[in-house]
Amino acid sequence: MSTLNSLADLLQASCIHAHDALTAADVARLLPLVPGWNVDHGKLVRGFAFKNYHETMAFVNALAWISHREDHHPELTVTYKNCVVRYDTHSVNNGARSLSDNDFICAAKASALLKAAP
Fold first, then answer.
1. Is 41 left (phi over 0), alpha (psi -120 to 50) or beta?
2. How far apart are CA 115 and CA 91, in angstroms?
3. Would you list the DSSP string of 72-117?
C-alpha cells in the first residue's frame, strides 16, 4: 500500500526499488494527485505540448536528467511540438509490468517541469 498522500509527498519522494505493484485502489487514490495523467493499457500516460522543437527537446532533456537521478525511466514518444510520456514498472509483479509509487513520483516531477519553466 502506498504511503504517498499528496502532491508534496510525491515531489519530495525519491524512487526506490519497487517490490509491490499498486492496487487498483492505490492507483485510484494517487491519480488525482497528478492532474493531466491517466492510465492507459496499464501505464501512467500524459501528453505534453510545446511551442516548438526547442521547447520539446528542453523538456525531454530535463526529464532525462530526472529519470537518471531517480533511476526510473519512461517510454517517450517525441515529435516536433509534443512529447508523450508513459510510465510503468517492470520490477514488480514478477516482471509483469504494473504501476508502482515510482511511476507517480516521476509523473509528478515531470509535470513540475512545466511549472518551473520561465
1. left
2. 30
3. ---EEEE-SSEEEEEE-BSSSGGGS-B--HHHHHHHHHHHHHHHH-
Type of residue found at 21? A
Q: How many C-beta atoms surround the C-beta of residue 108 within 10 A? A: 23
In tens digits, the chain (118 residues) has pLDDT values of 567 888 999 999 998 886 688 999 999 999 999 999 999 999 999 999 999 999 999 999 999 999 999 999 999 999 999 999 999 998 776 656 789 999 999 999 999 998 765 5
102, 110 contact by CB (below 8 A): no
Q: 50: which DSSP letter?
A: -
